[in-house]
Amino acid sequence: MSLILLIEQVLNGLQFGVTLFLMAAGLTLVFGVMGLINLAHGSLFMVGAFAAAAVAGATGSFVLALGAALAAAAAAGALVEVLVIRRLYARDHLDQVLATFALILIFSEGTRWVFGSFPLYLNIPAALSGPISLPGGIEYSTYRLFLIGVGIAVAIGLGLLITRSRLGIQIRAGESDREMIAALGIDISRLYTIVFALGAALAGLAGALVGAIQSVQVGMGEPVLILAFVVIVIGGIGSIKGALVGAVLVGLTDTLGKLLLPGMFALFMPASSAATVGSALASMAIYILMAAVLIWRPTGLFGVRA
Amino acid sequence: MIPERWLNAALTLGLLAVPLWALWADEPFTITLATKVAILALAGVGLNIALGIGGLVSLGHAAFFGVGGYAMGILAHHAQTFQPMIWGLEGTKSMPIIWLTALVSSGLAALAIGALTLRTSGVYFIMITLAFGQMFYYFAISWPAYGGEDGLSIYVRNGFPGLNTLDPIQFFAIAFTALMLALFLHARLKASPFGLALNAARQSPDRVETVGLSPFRLRLLAFVISGAITGLAGALFADLNRFVSPTMFSWQLSGELIVFLLIGGVARLYGPVVGAAVFIFLEHHLGDISEFWQIGLGVLLLLIVLFARGGLIGLVAGEKR
Amino acid sequence: MFKHLALAATVAAFGTAAVADGHGAVKVGMITTLSGGGAGLGIDVRDGFMLAINQSGNTNIEVIIEDDQRKPEIAVQLADKMIQSEKVDVMTGIIWSNLAMAVVPAATAQGKFYLSPNAGPSALAGRGCHPNYFNVAWQNDNLHEAAGAYANSAGYTNSFILAPNYPAGQDALTGYKRQYGGELAGEVFTKLGQTDYAAEIAQIRASGADSVFFFLPGGMGISFLKQYADSGVDLPVVGPAFSFDQGILQAVGAAALGVVNTSQWNKDIDNATNAAFVESFQAEYGRLPSLYASQGFDTANLLLSAMASADVNDTDAFRAALKAADFASTRGDFAFADNHHPIQDIYVREVIQEGDVFTNRIIGTALTDHSDVYGADCKM
């Protein structure tokens, strides 16, 4: 195996990781501040992708499409928060799981009702298409590099927002003591709606960005949702830093597992069955990673609260 | 308000009456549906022991359902192809042996998963059980020995001594009996010292610990019993369909099991029975009205969560104590 | 909203109105995927099938359509319902091999005819074949074998091949290798439902291959093609038609242009039946038909041709009438081999753009009068 291939795969793992981070950040933020487990986060990812595909189809502009994805997902998030989610904060996790499970059904079939059963078209903008040459003779997709850039920018932005801004102070205060910040005269229900819409917007952004290189179809959110769960469990629920570390770990484990495991089995098995067994194990690798982390630290790498 | 005990008796009679009517009216498919309700309710009763009494919100119970299903699939597959399994063991088409295998193997799976996941609690527990379920799912899909995603077809339903299991009503009787036994076990368990301690561990683990009991061990035992019963339901479900596939491991199924409990009422003895019956009814009748019936199901679930917190039984029998 | 729901229900049920009367009436149970992921395929099969039924004006046929949601358990229950309660004579409609394996053996064992409009798992073509099972589409390996044959004729000697890690994926690679005579630069199994192929594309780039064969149906194929087109790897790609059908080509867009794929059908096959089918399908449903729609259409016409010459209650005669395949197929020549699977030509197509619609055109024939290798194991 050449070094170039390995470096390229590490970049792929990183790119996969930062896209997962966009999803996981919203989930973990919502859990950290409101104590809510949201299964419908994947649906907001889907809403973003569909909004982007619809707007890109109508206007041809990728920038407008990204804007539409952010706006649509944030709006859907705010709407859902006001109508349903805010009634769930005081409930136990079981009610939250069920209500958000119900939201998945409504979002998925509703989207299929509006857009039909066939996948939609969304493509990479011309400016970012094609490969780019990196130092060392590596050819790498410009768009994927752009994704890594966006992911890192969002991570930094989110970090600044939380540590520096007034909203961030309220969010942190909300995380440590919900009653107290209400007593301080902060409009807590407005804060919750904003945080939820922010998480939704990040999911929508992820959906639009990923939708350009994948298939925009109903049900695209759930596999990503489950991966995002794995990410925040590894990173520690409620921790943005944990989400970033967890996302990159999961991205690298998945990508490198797929690359290396079949090869390892080929050392002592016939090539064809090594490919099958190796990829079977590779598809389970991130769950094994998660189990290992939890045995070592039951609240995740950066978790503070169970 | 009707006392819950009377309601339960009425539900038992109702679940018996529907297939008997169908037998009289020569509607064999209605018997099949009633059997499906009984089996899914059995899976729900299993979950209810962990979730209702123990407060353990497992979003990975499909793993045990699937293990039970594959216990049946693998044994019957070897029996129908006359190939021995490992160590020269023969497959079997005998339901009692299959059930025992399903109970033990899904119980062991629950022991392993529980030992790892019960170190966590709350939302971590929900997510990690979900992830373990996914692990089983991907394993079942990509492992080629037993059909992978295609699953395994068992051409003839397995046998039970003295019964003709191919006759829908006799197979219903088996499933119904299993459900009644599980409900009886649940009721006894809940009133037993173990059940009371488990319930206490849900409400206040610290207090349980101070009287010298280990919440972890109580929960682990509950989780194993719960997983084993759900596994038995999986074996029966596989026999109902004469087919097993990785979709038995899917996380949507875990979600649906929770849905049964919530529709009927969490920690209610008959909660899963009501939930499964309503769910199957909706699936078959809303499905006729529209391709998009799941929107209706979603709205109904939302309304139940938001406005009928005790589930349907709660609506009829009133809040608990 | 409710108005729309009601409308959808009418559309779904519009085939059930015909009243069966007297001699030769046939009740058909169609189980297909109409909701959830993959619904597009089932909708195409249903629409193609019902188009043929409606065009025939035959009132002796009643079709009951049910949605399996792509779940094998649901499909098994619907089959039980159709056999036990509705007492259908003929069943059809299943899209996916795993659902077919769950339903078909039990249905044929209970004396029902099953006409497969899509799935053709190898188990049902070989040792598990059944006199009452007819496959009107293809055996699962066929299109992959054709891709292998095309690779030989195009002079490829070092292919990189990939498919999802599940039985149909493993069969796909086996099928390709059966015909393909060159070396393999790599053989990779991806995760079922995988959406990111960056890792595999990097391996392709590093492998020194001269061509790529892939089988990634549905959304997986869309993702792969978009990412492959963007990666700057410009090796020729060949695949079966499943990633290039009319339903998903629009979602792939320009990334698929010029890609070669193999299919037993295309809208430009030159015969009167096909021309009329393409035109009337477009007029009826406002979209171009896919190969799935053509398979549904052919399945219905096969059934109608058998009904014209035999009574379904005379099982032997009806079976012989089906076996004769005395109908005008959209594919031109069509016959059944002894294992009741098609003998047909498989074409090489290329993705082109017509106006703003992406579609395929035939550029050659990969295999002529092709059957499958499993027939030898079929004893009936």
Give the % helix of chain A: over 70%
Order of helices and strands of chain A: HHHHEEHHHHHHH
Radius of gyration of chain A: 20 Å
Number of helices of chain B: 13
Give the number of DSSP strands of chain A. 2
- As residue ranges, the low-confidence spans of chain B are none
In terms of DSSP E residues, the strand content of chain A is under 5%
- Give the biggest sheet of chain A: 2 strands, antiparallel
Specify the structural class of chain A. mainly alpha
Organism (chain B): Thalassobacter stenotrophicus
Keywords (chain B): Cell membrane, Membrane, Transmembrane, Transmembrane helix
Transmembrane segments (chain B): 6-25, 37-64, 97-116, 123-146, 166-185, 220-238, 258-282, 294-317
Subcellular location (chain B): Cell membrane
Q: Can you walk me through this structure?
A:
The complex is a heterotrimer of chains A (306), B (321) and C (380). Chain A is mainly alpha-helical. Chain A contains 11 helices and 2 strands; from the N terminus they run ααααββααααααα. The mean pLDDT of chain A is 87. By secondary structure, chain B is mostly helical. Chain B has a single domain, classed as Orthogonal Bundle (ABC transporter involved in vitamin B12 uptake, BtuC), CATH 1.10.3470. Chain B contains 13 helices and 2 strands; from the N terminus they run H-H-H-H-H-E-H-H-H-H-E-H-H-H-H. Chain B has helices at 4-25, 28-53, 62-81, 95-117, 122-142, 168-191, 193-203, 205-210, 215-241, 251-264, 271-289, 293-307, 311-317, and strands at residues 152-153, 243-244. Chain B has a two-stranded antiparallel sheet. In chain B, helix 4 packs antiparallel against helix 9 (215-241), helix 10 (251-264) packs across helix 11 and helix 10 (251-264) runs parallel beside helix 13. The two termini of chain B are 13 Å apart. The mean pLDDT of chain B is 87. With 380 residues, chain C is α/β, with parallel strands linked by helices. Helix content of chain C is 42%, strand content 21%. Chain C has 13 helices and 13 strands. In chain C, the strands form 2 sheets. In chain C, strands 6, 7, 8, 9, 10, 11, 12 and 13 form an 8-stranded mixed β-sheet that branches. Chain C has a 5-stranded parallel β-sheet with strand order 2-1-3-4-5, sandwiched between helices. The longest helix of chain C has 19 residues, at 291-309. Chain C starts with a helix and ends in a 10-residue tail after the last strand. The chains are: A mainly alpha (306), B mainly alpha (321), C alpha/beta (380). Chains in contact: A-B, A-C, B-C. Chain B: Keywords: Cell membrane, Membrane, Transmembrane, Transmembrane helix. Chain B: It is a multi-pass membrane protein. Chain B: It comes from Thalassobacter stenotrophicus.
